[in-house]
Amino acid sequence: ATAQTPATPSWAKETAAAKEKRMQWWTNDRFGMFIHWGLYSLPARHEWVQMNERIKPEDYKKYFDNFNPDLYDPKQWAKEAKAAGMKYVVLTSKHHEGFCLWDSKYTDYKVTNTPYGKDLLKDFVDAFRAEGLKVGFYYSLIDWHHPDFVMDGGHPPTPVDKEERAKANEGRDMKKYQEYMKNQVTELLTKFGKIDQLFFDFSYNGKEYKEWDSENLLKLVRKLQPDIIVNDRLGFPVETSWGWDYKTPEQFMPKEWVKVNGQNVPWETCQTFSGSWGYYRDEYSWKSPEQLIVMLIETVSKGGNLLLNVGPTARGHFDERASDRLTAMGKWMKFNSRSIYGCTEAPESFKKPANCLLTYNPTTKRLYIHAMQWPFKTLTLEGYKGKFKYAQILEDGSEIKFSTNTRSGGHTTETSGENDVMLHLPVRKPGSTIPVIELILE
Ligand code: FHN
After folding, report:
1. Which residues, other chains included, contact 248 with Cβ-Cβ below 8 Å and sequence gap of 6+?
2. DSSP structure string for 148-169
3. DSSP label of 353
4. Which residues are CB-contacts of 11 (< 8 A; sequence separation ≥ 6)?
5. Is 47 near ligand 1, meaning CB less than 6 Å away?
6. Which of 224, 244, 214, 199 is nearest to 14 (CA)?
7. 187 lines ligand 1 (CB under 6 A)
8. Which residues contact 197 (CB under 8 A, 6 or more apart)?
9. Which parts of 45-85 are beta strand (E)?
10. Which part of the chain is the Glycoside hydrolase family 29 N-terminal domain (predicted)?
11. Is the CB of 97 under 6 A from ligand 1?
12. Candidates 141, 201, 231, 310: which one to mutate for ligand 1, based on the most atoms within 8 Å of Cβ?
């Protein structure tokens, strides 16, 4: 323990090997679906709409009174996630608005009191497990509805003025809210079978672990679901290695494998289709399918996982723009997922060719070259001589011939370096949005 970080409690002691084993499925699977769904899906202009527009609780209530997702079909959600190549899913059980998607006995602010009238989580976990996906929950530490949630400078609905804020917090008891969270997390981790991942959200200054009583909250989580994987947002200082399982860079692409104290650590970037987590009808900055496929490849090339978000509509379905992107990613994954599942960053000894991203499967000993632009006729692999024995285009398994000390075609002669290998490629770009060349290594 240091002045900043609490000592490792006995219940949190775990060897690196045990942690690696516990996270093996997650590290292998690489690609998950995030789902943000709640009352904010009705205004359909961002999951922070209540705060962004300072909507008074009495005005926000109309969304509660009209929540009735008659098209909700988690089997369809699960089919689309599986077809996209996703292997796990994380659903918001409660977002900052405080509305619960299950029949919690600790609040009336829940789906069973809306016109829909039924628990949403049971059918959700059943449907995704039936498609073979692992299931996780997102649970918001911030709660704009709970009467004992104490607002501070970083957690809205924070009145800006300090005096105003103190007045608004009068009578609020954070200890009661801490108890509320433990009770609800107990419901989430005992009523819905094995839960594989837990995404708490969020702390903002690396000190709130006392404010949330995070040590006892995490102790409870580990007791109820010993194999669960927990993110890094309980407010522990980053050095508190027992306080989190993986880092969560969000809505940006890290330049390299995420590190803590200079060491590579497990990481999962969570990303959106459009910039908004919740369904945002008029949002226009949707990423193209190609951008999303490249995002997945680049994430794995840096040793990370991608948790890609869908915001279902108030009716309970994935809108066309989301489904179209999931379909496009599934088409790419159908032929190229071998370069994603079980893969990670390539060893430094494999130099990255220009305009390419590399992934590597340490188990099968195969290297994957993702060509961001299809090279014209040849691709020189500097220093690869003697490192691989066969090359093929992944999507159709067609052989790629290669040679060393090669003279390229045409009237000029050009030889590759003595340790280089030249791949001889078809002029026609393969059909995959991002074609992949698979090298079977020596
Ligand atoms: O404020 C939330 C936001 O609405 C969304 O849930 C993201 C997802 O990681 N987390 C917080 C912002 O970091």
Report:
1. 199, 231, 232, 233, 267, 268, 269, 270
2. TPPPBTTBSS--SSHHHHHHHH
3. P
4. 219, 222, 223
5. yes
6. 244
7. no
8. 26, 32, 88, 90, 134, 135, 136, 137, 228, 229, 230, 231
9. none
10. 1-337
11. no
12. 201
Collapsing DSSP to helix, strand or coil, 261 comes out as coil
Please give the mean pLDDT across all residues of the chain. 94
Complete edge-to-edge strand list for the sheet that includes strand 401-403: 378-381, 421-424, 401-403
Task: Report the range of poorest mean pLDDT among 55-64, 185-194, 307-316, 413-422.
Answer: 413-422
Cα(386) to centroid(ligand 1), Å: 47
- pTM for the complete prediction? 0.97
CA–chain centroid gap for 284, Å, is: 22
Tens digits of residue pLDDT in 373-406? 999 999 999 999 999 999 999 999 999 999 987 7
The yes-or-no verdict on residue 313 having pLDDT over 80 is: yes
Lookup: tokens for 9: 């409690």
Residue 352: how many other CB atoms lie within 10 Å: 15
Helix, strand, coil tally for the chain in percent (to 5) = 30, 20, 50
Q: Is the CB of 384 under 6 A from ligand 1?
A: no
Tokens of 301: 């090339």
Number of H helices, E strands in the chain: 12, 17
CA distances from 43 to 48, 71, 94 (A): 10, 17, 17
Q: Whose CA is nearest to atom 5 of ligand 1?
A: 277
Ligand 1: does its nearest atom lie under 6 Å from the Cβ of 232?
no
pLDDT at 220: 98
